[in-house]
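Budget justification aside, the reviewers requested a transparent look at the raw inputs and outputs of the sequence design task funded under Objective 1. We therefore reproduce one unedited record. The lines immediately below are the structure tokens for a 342-residue chain.
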């Protein structure tokens, strides 16, 4: 099993439906693959964006390089928003994102004459975490999460969240605003992107965020499932009741979308201009090949259903541009949404 900076993010199965969307981001330097190989393609591919998608992109770059050593694949993770900004300025070939492109980003691309192809590749969930020593909280409702984190919330103690919990002050934790998980959580839980209480202790680094929760017995926070999986011995994920019983975040519940609405698809956005280059087309072809899928699973990710990859390949072959996921509502399958793009 290959380990990367993030060891685990999860994808949709054939029946998984689309949850409300957010993005993961984490500004950190990336890596570049280079050298000699057997493939005939040559050139350079630049990729930047979501830290959640980074392990997939990096694993693919490493394995693609083994047979295409004349192609340098430069993979970075400045964050979904930052990556999309670079993409809309024409500075990179591929943007990785843990949410669909936003209208303002699509407009920025249009202003620069940048057409793009939207390719869903993976999925993730968001966990609501407490300290491992927390003995009274094991489940929480969506309404309680909203009451706790909402803008202007009057919640100060655990008892304010749930009757019977102790009247001890809660410390709230979450990622910074450049993270897609922040965008996703605030929009999905609080009703509007960026609309959360002002006293959340924010951290740019997810690992440091989990460490902070691990060191605070009254912590209540949220992080991406992939990061939690990497450090699940340091904190406890609450089961979340969205009205159909409490569901714990696990591979299976994210895969079958029972951990709804706290699950989300992950994307690559490829510029049409870049897609016309042989090395980029070969990289995407590799991504959808059996070998490419092995690269994804070896990095501890779950694959999309075969039909989704078939539809992805059709989009790449046709070069059809635009987004069908922007504004998509919960309850729709990834495959059904992809079919609209054909």
């Amino acid at each position: 099993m290959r380990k990367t900076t993030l060891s685990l993010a999860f994808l949709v199965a054939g029946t998984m439906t689309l949850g409300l969307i957010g993005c993961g981001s984490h500004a950190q330097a990336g890596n570049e693959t280079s050298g000699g190989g057997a493939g005939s393609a040559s050139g350079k591919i630049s990729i930047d964006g979501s830290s959640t998608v980074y392990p997939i992109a990096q694993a693919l770059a490493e394995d693609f390089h083994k047979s295409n050593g004349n192609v340098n694949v430069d993979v970075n993770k400045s964050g979904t928003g930052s990556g999309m900004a670079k993409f809309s300025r024409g500075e990179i070939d591929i943007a990785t994102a843990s949410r669909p492109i936003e209208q303002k980003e699509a407009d920025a691309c249009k202003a620069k004459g940048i057409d793009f192809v939207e390719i869903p590749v993976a999925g993730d969930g968001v966990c609501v975490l407490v300290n491992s020593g927390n003995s009274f909280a094991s489940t929480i409702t969506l309404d309680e999460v909203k009451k706790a984190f909402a803008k202007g919330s009057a919640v100060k103690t655990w008892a304010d969240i749930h009757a019977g919990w102790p009247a001890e002050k809660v410390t709230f934790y979450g990622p910074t605003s450049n993270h897609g998980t922040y965008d996703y959580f605030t929009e999905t839980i609080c009703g509007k992107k960026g609309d959360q209480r002002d006293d959340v202790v924010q951290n740019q680094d997810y690992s440091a965020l989990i460490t902070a929760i691990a060191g605070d017995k009254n912590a209540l926070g949220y992080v991406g499932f992939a990061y939690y999986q990497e450090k699940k011995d340091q904190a406890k994920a609450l089961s979340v009741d969205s009205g159909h019983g409490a569901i714990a975040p696990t591979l299976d519940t994210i895969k079958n979308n029972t951990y709804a609405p706290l699950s989300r698809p992950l994307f690559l956005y490829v510029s049409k201009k870049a897609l016309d280059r042989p090395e980029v087309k070969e990289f995407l072809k590799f991504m959808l090949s059996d070998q490419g899928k092995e690269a994804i699973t070896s990095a501890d990710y779950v694959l999309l259903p075969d039909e989704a990859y078939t539809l992805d390949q059709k989009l790449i072959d046709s070069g059809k541009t635009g987004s069908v996921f922007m504004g998509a509502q919960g309850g729709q399958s990834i495959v059904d949404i992809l079919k609209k793009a054909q």
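Residues 126-254 form a domain with the D-Maltodextrin-Binding Protein; domain 2 fold (CATH 3.40.190.10). Confidence is low (pLDDT under 50) at residues 3-30, 32-37. Computational costs for records of this kind are itemized in the attached budget.
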